[in-house]
Amino acid sequence: MAHLIVYFSHEGQNWVNGEVKDLPKGNTERAAEIIRDAVGGDMFRVEAKEPYPADYQALIARTKEELDEGRRPPLRIAPPSLEPYDLIFVGYPNWWNTLPMPMVTFLTLAETAGKRLAAFCTNEGGSMGMGEREMRRFCPGAQVLEGLAVKGAEVEKEAARLSAWARKIAGIQG
Ligand SMILES: Cc1cc2nc3c(=O)[nH]c(=O)nc-3n(C[C@H](O)[C@H](O)[C@H](O)COP(=O)(O)O)c2cc1C
Description:
The protein is an alpha/beta fold. The chain is built from five helices and seven strands, in the order βββαβαβαβαβα. It has one domain: Flavodoxin domain (Rossmann fold). Helix content is 32%, strand content 26%. A five-stranded parallel sheet has the order 4-1-5-6-7, sandwiched between helices. It has a two-stranded antiparallel sheet with strand order 2-3. Flavin mononucleotide binds next to β2, α1, α2 and β6.
């Protein structure tokens, strides 16, 4: 059966190896591409209707406020039907030790009951944070498989590990 790779990723200023850097492409998006190249499947990018600011300080302020207030921002594009898929890879950057709020919006709107979900997360040292646990909470009818965390600055170096993990979950030999 086909699988879907859903991800949220933020390009622009980001915290990389202890300093603010401008990333033309987000780390999680890159990880999603590596997984797609390894196992095939369709991609869906989760985006908030109101885009996040590229400026790092503004991004920090908005995301912290959203999290503190438990706000689930509306999405630019509604989740697609998950009907054709049995396995869904769910990629997120660790934000404030948990899921970015647009991913919470996605997970609560998407029909994940009966699906297998596999999380991949890029981070700056905080691993998956509470993200995977939160995924179980927001998707009680889904089976959440063991996910994979990689350091955002090391996504390219981790390509083989990401690919091997995804292939194993997708049941692809070799
Ligand atoms: C608002 C914000 C909060 C973050 N919080 C954490 C955190 O709690 N723990 C951590 O390890 N990394 C944290 N990071 C770093 C990101 O997880 C890391 O840079 C990630 O690779 C970004 O992925 P992206 O480029 O796909 O958005 C944070 C980054 C941002 C912008």
